[in-house]
Design goal:
The complex is a heterodimer. Chain A is α/β, with parallel strands linked by helices. Chain A contains 17 helices and 19 strands. Chain B is α/β, with parallel strands linked by helices. Chain B is 36% helix and 18% strand. In chain B, strands 1, 2, 11, 12, 13, 14 and 20 form a seven-stranded mixed β-sheet that branches. Chain B has a seven-stranded mixed β-sheet with strand order 7-6-16-17-18-15-19, sandwiched between helices. In chain B, strands 3-4 form a two-stranded antiparallel ribbon. The N terminus of chain B is likely disordered. The chains are: A alpha/beta, B alpha/beta.
């Protein structure tokens, strides 16, 4: 039963890595601790008959090129237009932001002519830098300190790509990338509601508020990525990856939790499962989070002290909670005239409200008025709930991993209540329709999904933990200091959200492509 | 009328702040005829000592020095002109529970003081200065030279960057990554990677926020920390000093050196605007209407004032105006200066002692500093602010009558943009002063009884009196997007401006604020190199 490679974790990254390895002729086994493949993208029945399509909402990050190389369309993956986002407003009509840029610019323009023009200007700036950013997102990060001729060549190519972008745009990119997203958006828009809503995804599940420097990098990276949603949501991506992996001859074992990555004389020799079973392979590619892989799965003392320290320093604090609601009817927002929205953002109406929500976690409290990033997946896929019923998936920011007093059942309930009361202000009929609710605090996310700190991105998205620094300098190109051990989960470049790119690139590092 | 008719200057420097004076001195040293024009009655700008209360001399704005470049001190022979630095003995941080932390020039004493809180940190602290010095090796060449512009397409600049890259490569990967992290992390995250006890991290982190509109947990503040660590007196890192005679004495020394080199300095000579001819700067027009011509005009004012007031929007490309307007000023700090009847008592460490000769830092915890920042974010001054307190008369007795003292309190945060609007500052000035004194009295119970005179300088006052736009003490925020080749604008980081014959030489240009002198000197060198004068 000799394997060439073991992949730890069957989320989108783990499966993508397995497919690439298998296609390169490697004999691969994927070990998944859950009962089904998918990781955070697994369909989750949180109440009998009611399911959410995974935990994450940011599915519009899958690059078509990577999907094509993995052969996912042949295995059933279909893209669809990103759904319109309804930005709810207290005592106001809100803004319905269509998924296409032109429609969005028109919608914004109806609210403010100035902002509509600014939106068009912003989209055209993003379009001009997108080729550059897309290339960054689709490739392994360049070496910060080039060692080989190949490295120098890669850097030179990057330099050339920079040269091709208009110099004005380049200067602007250099100026705006390290900014805080609030400053960037305030320079352009005059409608506070819009600024808050556009800023929110840049700080979701990060340890930063919209006034924190560097958050605009998150904004730019997201806005320049793909932009297309997945038909069937994240589970559809998992299904196509699973089909592709089977076609490529990958073996998948579920209910197989890896307890230890074994080494001999400093080199990887295989893994030991929780059951005690040992599986041998000269290569282990882990899509578990970097802290878990390097500090828990490796035996203590395996890493040089300096590298161990590097991973200790990696910041991986969860800052968001997930709340799932089962409703006996639709989620009807005030003033929506019966229209149902698939994607909704609810904030306080001003970017400072989002910042205040962040302030709470600095003092180890959760926000009493959290910002809500909402999906109602049953609008597109009614099969997730009984007929006429709906499920609501909410990412609530901010809630700290380290809560004063700890995450007791009481604290979890209070958080759930805070989320409901914010939502209720915009959906007056909500309370009577709630059949069941599930609240996942960062502590729950850690316990149930093996996420260190409950951090949904496997590592905070901060300037010093991105690109050539992700997850840490020594492992930024997927290869770790332990020969045979590779990191290829969301903790590696290009990072979190529903996308298979890190796994794909890590497998590339294994096969030497 | 024009009493200077016939006199042709090579260069006119607008503003006699320390950078303007340094720039003028370097140009004069190269044989150029230079005129410096100052709006106020004295030179120095924010580098000033003023007798606000009879017999008491206040270091009104900037209050310590460590960043003034040693080569400038040598080139301008400043010690001969009265420049003398008295070292600051110690930094004391009192805590509400009555404990205190002392860091001073004696490593062993410092170690013992830190060890009371954390033996681990006491050990790490010893090597920390060394580590910062190592990291400073990247920044040091950068603050003594114009900023490298990685987006330049000039082959010479690319060659220079390649050489710099090679130099950096030689320093080793680990060092390089540390630097990248340093540029992007928050001061607290950076320090927390090394230290464990908050009583040490909080007072150390404040170097990362001084003069910025950021909190100690905001990314980008680790760099500012390093910026403040670069001070060197007699070659030793992290040595802050107090100029004899207050910071104003530095300006006097530079002015004296400049005059000796032939610079003409006129005070109470406000410049109304530039004299523009065919889109080029041809000189200046004074407040009284006099015109003075020169081959080049050098602005020692901040970027906003330079372009929007001195040049005027009507002479600027709208795109440039747009760029300048979005250069962020946003002052965040104020000063409270006190004349004291006697030495105040520090409750945690009563009595007279060397600890009163140094800085007293009110930064008891990270949460305290963050709360202070939160107030400011939403447009109010900190109810319980961070304070850097100094009693300069302990080091230099000439600043106050015998037995009496002056106290300088640097206060953060005091946002220029109050939620009621900046113009509301005069209404809130005394309340702000009260908040400062009340908070400080928690640590110095007898302070209130000793106050003979109180001067409160809000950011609005700093703008009115010293011409610092929005009261920003660094002529523009020290945030990543406003540093190095982006300061003050992408493509114009070399002291030259888009207005022909107009140059900039102050803190709004690379390498930024503090009594450093580098922008002034680098501007002069650049002008001479380009034969602009």
């Amino acid at each position: 039963m000799g394997y060439d490679a073991i992949v730890v974790g069957a989320g989108p990254n783990g499966l993508a890595a397995a497919v690439r390895l298998a296609k390169a002729g490697r004999k691969v086994v994927v070990l998944e601790r859950g009962e089904a493949p998918g990781g955070l993208s697994v369909k989750r029945e949180f109440h009998p008959g009611y399911a959410v399509p995974g935990l994450l909402h940011d599915e519009a990050l899958v690059p078509r090129a990577v999907a094509a190389k993995l052969g996912l369309t042949e295995h059933g993956l279909a893209f669809r237009k990103a759904p319109s986002i309804y930005i709810a407003e207290t005592n106001g009509p809100g803004i319905l932001l269509p998924g296409d840029p032109q429609g969005a610019a028109e919608a914004v323009g109806k609210r403010s002519k100035h902002d509509g023009q600014s939106y068009t200007g912003l989209r055209s700036f993003l379009d001009r830098i997108a080729p550059l950013v897309a290339a960054v997102l689709a490739e392994a990060p360049p070496p910060l300190a080039p060692g080989s001729a190949g490295d120098v060549w890669q850097l030179a190519r990057r330099g050339l790509a920079l040269w091709k972008v208009n110099r004005r745009d380049l200067l602007e990119l250099a100026r705006v990338a390290p900014m805080c997203v609030a400053d960037f958006l305030n320079e352009r828009f005059e409608t506070p509601l819009l600024v808050e809503a556009l800023a929110a995804p840049a700080v979701a599940s990060t340890w930063s508020g919209p006034w924190s420097a560097g958050t605009n990098t998150n904004f730019l990276l997201r806005e320049c990525a793909g932009g297309e949603a997945l038909a069937g949501g994240p589970p559809a991506l998992v299904a196509s990856l699973y089909a592709a992996s089977r076609a490529a001859g990958v073996e998948l074992r579920t209910g197989a939790e890896v307890k230890r990555i074994r080494t001999d004389k400093g080199k990887v020799t295989g893994v030991t499962l929780a059951s005690g079973e040992a599986i041998e392979a000269p290569v282990v590619l882990s899509s578990a989070d970097p802290k878990r892989t390097m500090l828990k799965l490796l035996a203590p003392g395996t890493l040089p002290l300096r590298i161990e320290e590097e991973f200790h320093k990696l910041r991986s604090r969860g800052t968001a909670a997930k709340v799932h609601l089962a409703l006996s009817g639709p989620l009807e927002l005030a003033g929506s005239d019966g229209q149902l929205y698939e994607a909704i953002r609810i904030g306080g109406g001003h970017v400072d409200d989002l910042e205040r929500a962040f302030d709470a976690i600095k003092y180890r409290r959760f926000s009493e008025k959290p910002h809500l990033e909402i999906r109602v997946p049953t609008v597109a896929d009614p099969s997730l709930a009984p007929a006429g019923h709906h499920v609501v998936s909410i990412l609530a920011s901010f809630a700290p991993y380290h809560l004063d007093g700890g995450w007791t059942a009481e604290a979890r309930k209070r958080l759930g209540d805070a989320v409901i009361s914010v939502l209720e202000q915009h959906a007056p009929d909500l309370r009577g329709r709630i059949i069941a609710r599930e609240v996942l605090t960062p502590a729950d996310l850690e316990a149930q999904f093996a996420l260190t700190g409950g951090q949904l991105h496997h590592g905070e998205l901060a300037l010093d933990q991105l690109l050539v620094m992700r997850p840490t300098p020594s492992a930024a190109r997927y290869r770790t200091v332990v020969p045979g051990l590779f990191l290829g989960g969301s903790g590696s470049h290009p990072g979190g959200g529903v996308r298979p790119t890190a796994g794909w690139l890590a497998a590339g590092a294994v096969v030497g492509a | 009328m024009n009493d200077f008719r016939g006199t042709r200057y090579d260069a006119i420097v607008v503003g006699a702040g320390h950078n303007g004076l340094v720039c003028a001195a370097y140009l004069a040293k190269a044989g150029r005829k230079v005129l410096v024009l100052e709006r106020r009655h004295q030179v120095g700008g924010a580098t000033t000592t003023e007798e606000i209360h009879p017999g008491y001399k206040f270091t009104c704005c900037s209050y310590v020095v460590s960043l003034l470049r040693p080569w400038i001190i040598r080139d301008l022979d400043l010690p001969r002109h009265g420049y003398e630095i008295l070292p600051l003995e110690a930094t004391v941080t009192p805590f509400p529970d009555g404990r205190y932390l002392v860091r001073d020039s004696d490593p062993e004493r410092t170690r013992r003081s830190i060890a009371k809180f954390s033996p681990h940190d006491a050990e790490v602290y010893k090597s920390f200065g060394q580590e910062m010095a190592e990291l400073g090796r990247l920044i040091k060449p950068m603050i003594d030279e114009p900023a490298p512009d990685p987006l330049s397409r000039d082959p010479r600049e690319l060659l220079r960057i390649a050489r710099l890259g090679k130099h950096l490569r030689g320093q080793g990967d680990r060092w390089l990554y540390s630097n990248v992290k340093m540029m992007t992390m928050s001061a607290v995250d950076f320090l927390s990677e090394r230290f464990e006890c908050e009583q040490l991290i909080a007072p150390m982190a404040i170097s990362g926020i001084i003069g910025t509109f950021l909190g100690v947990r905001s990314p980008g503040t680790a760099y500012v920390l390093l910026h403040h660590y670069m001070g060197e007196i007699d070659g030793s890192f992290r040595a802050w000093g107090l100029p004899k005679g207050g910071t104003g004495a530095i300006a006097e020394a530079i002015a004296s050196s400049a005059r000796e080199l032939g610079v003409e300095i006129r005070t109470e000579a406000p410049v109304a605007h530039l004299l523009m001819e065919n889109g080029k700067a041809a000189g200046v027009v004074l407040g009284n209407g006099d015109e003075i011509r020169a081959k080049a005009v050098i602005s020692g004012l901040d970027p906003h004032r330079t372009f929007l007031k001195l040049v005027g929007e009507e002479h600027l490309d709208p795109e440039l105006t747009h760029q300048i307007k979005r250069f962020k000023m946003r002052g965040s700090s104020g000063k409270v200066n006190l004349a004291l009847d006697a030495l105040p008592t520090l409750a945690c460490l009563p009595g007279y002692g060397p600890h009163l000769q140094g800085g007293i830092t009110i930064a008891p915890s990270i949460d305290y500093l963050e709360r202070a920042y939160d107030d400011a974010k939403y447009g109010a001054f900190s109810r319980r602010p961070f304070m850097d307190v100094l009693i300069p008369s302990m080091t230099d007795p000439t600043l106050a009558p015998p037995g009496k003292h002056v106290m300088s309190i640097f206060v953060q945060y005091a946002p220029y943009h109050l939620k009621e609007g900046a113009a509301d500052w005069p209404n809130q000035r005394e309340a702000f002063g009260d908040a400062v004194i009340d908070t400080l009295s928690e640590y110095m119970p007898d302070l209130k009884n000793l106050i003979l005179h109180r001067q409160v300088l809000t950011p609005w006052d700093l703008e009115q009196i010293y011409g610092l736009t929005e009261g920003n003490i660094f002529h523009g925020e020290l945030s990543l997007e406003q540093l190095a080749f982006l300061r003050p604008m992408a493509g114009w980081s070399r002291y030259q401006t888009p207005v022909r014959n107009l140059w900039m030489c102050a803190s709004g240009t690379h390498p930024g604020g503090g009594i450093m002198g580098a922008p002034g000197a680098l501007c002069a060198k650049m002008m001479l190199g380009k034969r602009a004068v």
